[in-house]
Each structure stands twice: as structure tokens, then as C-alpha cells.
Amino acid sequence: MAHDSHASSNAKTGHAKTLPADLSAPAFVGAWKSRALMVAAAFGIVTVILAFLGQAQDQLGWDHFLRAWVLGLMLTFGWCVGGLALLMVQYCTGGKWGLLLRRPLEAMSRTLPLIFIYWLVPVVYMKKLYLWAQFSSDGETADALKNGIINEAQKHCIDFKRPMLNPEMYVIAGLVCFMIWFLYAWRLNKMAAKRDAQGPDKTPYWIKKFENFAGPGIVVYALTMTAAVIYWVMSMDVTWFSSVYGLLFLVGQGYSVLAFSIIVSIALSKAEPFKTIMRQTEQHDLGKMTFAFVMLNIYLAFSQFLIIWSGNLPEEIPWYLDRIRGHWGVIITLDFIFHWLVPFSMLLSRDIKRNKKRLTRVCQWMIFAKAFDLFWLIEPNFKDAARNLHFSWGIMEYATLPVAMAALWVAFFANRLQTKALVQVNDPHLAEILEPEHAHA
Q: What is the domain count for the chain?
């Protein structure tokens, strides 16, 4: 389609806008990649320095490196696989918002190779991160109990859960999950490419085909993602169990994926083709959907806390005590403010949801809050940190290494975003989204 130089005047006079001839990613996406690589290098160097300082201070510098690595893994894993899940949700539900987010979500799903590389680090250094990985038999746990390395509850849980929590199953479960995610990411992107190559007359066929593939895929995603977070995070505390743990991460991924997607979409709207299709109406809708995930996120987190706290069972309450006592109460209070109160208060405003700059700031804050929440989930799992929040050079790595990993992921994402046209021209909602804003006021 030819570019209409009078697109803005058309909006004022009530005429539909037209797409530009070039639908590829604007040139500044390449600059994103360059800047992200520079940030990754800078923060990576700072992290190594902090690791050496931490090692000299308390011999935990490299232990904190691995823990911070898991935080970076879970943050970028949430964007990648969470983006794949939201893509499948869009195919099942439809809606104009899919025209804006489909290409960014596809690009997120194609970053899975980098997430796999990130995951290999916990595989190699499993014994540094997981208590259960250090003992391969009941005899070894019995000796550890006698020597005061573990307590009675830990011994019981390690022995009882050994058929599931052992190095071989950790690797097998991870590989199976990655194979399934690779399959869905590859298949959805391949189907999208075929759809792009065909005309609008085939659109009903593709809508049904995507629905049939993505519907079961959402269920598969929920199961595999739950398995992954149980192995990668929850098993750091071998005594902890929660039936809602996977769901908390599922909603958390929607929370952070929507925040990241809105940032990307608003940034892309500075140039064509998103400048033409990014209307205030759809931006407002995305803000409302993000608000819904903010509410669901706090509902699940507070429900789990309230049920366990009121039950006060000795096998459940220590997990929260580890994260409240010993100055951790400051962190959980800030987590509540950062993770829920601030985005909830901001997204209540209709004006903020319709203002590009302000909505971008809120979404940037949400990503920071998600990383802060992951710190609260991960660090107290370890004996030196449980009920004992204290400053060290090593703990500062939580503020640098995840930034380096996220920046490297953003560079890869920007590269993937450049490989496809940003707008799907045979989308049934395209004509509607090109109409002037006041037509649906």
C-alpha cells in the first residue's frame, strides 16, 4: 500500500488512514540493540567486580552471583515464555490489541534459545543453588543431620521428594519443557508466516487454525511453566510447598509481559508503521488489561499469605517468617508498595492510561517491581539470608547481574523484531484500527 502523506489530516476530516509502504521495524530498533549490548557489558563488568568483593568479604560473592543469575533467568524467561502464552491467548480471544502486540510477542517467543543458555548455568552449578542436589541417598542426609548441616524437616523432605528432586529429573524436566516451548514457538511463527503470504480470503481459515492450536497450548503452557518454576525456584527451599505457586508466576508473567509490550509498542509508535496504527483507544485498552493483571496478582499473593498465616501450621509458616523477620519486613512492605500499590494507584487514572509518556513510566516501574518481588522470593531461601537481611557486596549483584541479563535479552529481542514486518496486513481488525479516533469515541 502506498504511504498517504495526509494521514493526520485524514484523521481530522474523518477519512481512514493508510499504511506506509514500508512495514519493517524503524531504524532506531537497531539502536536499541546497540545500547542494550553496551548496558549488558557495563553491568556485567560491575557484577564481576562485586562478586570478587563479596568473595573477599564473606566468601559468598559467587554464590550471590548464581542467585542473581536465577533472578535474571526468571525475569527474561517470563518475557519469553509469557510472551508466547499471551500470543496464544490473543489468537483464542481476538481483539484489536493483537494487531499491536502480535509482532512484539512473536519476537519475544523467538528469544527462547537465549533463555535455554541462561538455564544451563543453574544446571551446571546445581549443588550451589539447591540443597537437595547435594545429597544422593538417605545415608548422606542422615550424616548431614548428625553434623548439623540440615535439620530434621529438611532431611525428611529431601528423602521423601528424592524421586522428583534429583539432578537427573531436574535436567529431564527442563529439557522436556524447553522442547515443548520450542515446538509451540516454532509452529506459531511458521503459521504466522504462511498466513502473511496468503490473501484476506484465507483469514477465516487461519483464525480457526490458530484457535485450535493455541487453545490447548495455553493449558500446556500452564502445566510446563508450573513444572519449571517448581524446579527452578520453589525447590530452593526443599520444605516449601504451595498449590498456587505456579499460578502466581503465571499471573506475574502476564503482569511483566504486558508492561514490556506496552513500552515497546509506545516506543515503536514514534515512527511508521506503528505511528499509524497506535491509537489512543487501543493504548487505553492495553492499560486496562494491565490493570486487571495488577489486581489478579495481588489477589493471589495476598490470598496465599492470608490462608497460610491464619492457619499458622508449623510446616507452612516458616517460609513467610524467613521473609518477614530479620529486617525482611522492610522488603515485603516495599514489595507491596512497589508491586501493587503504585501501579494500582497509577492505572486507576484514565488520563495516565491514555498518555504515552506516563503509561511508559508506569510500565517501567512495574518491571522494576517484578524484579524486586523475585529478589524477595529467591534470596531468603538460603541459610545465610533467611531472617537475616544484611548488606554485603555480594547482595548488590541482584541490582546489576539481572540488568545485564535483561539488557542482553533486549538486544536479542530487538534483533528478532527486525526480521518481520510489524503489521499483519490481512488482519480483520486492520480496517477498523485505521479509522479515525473519533469514530469510536
A: 1
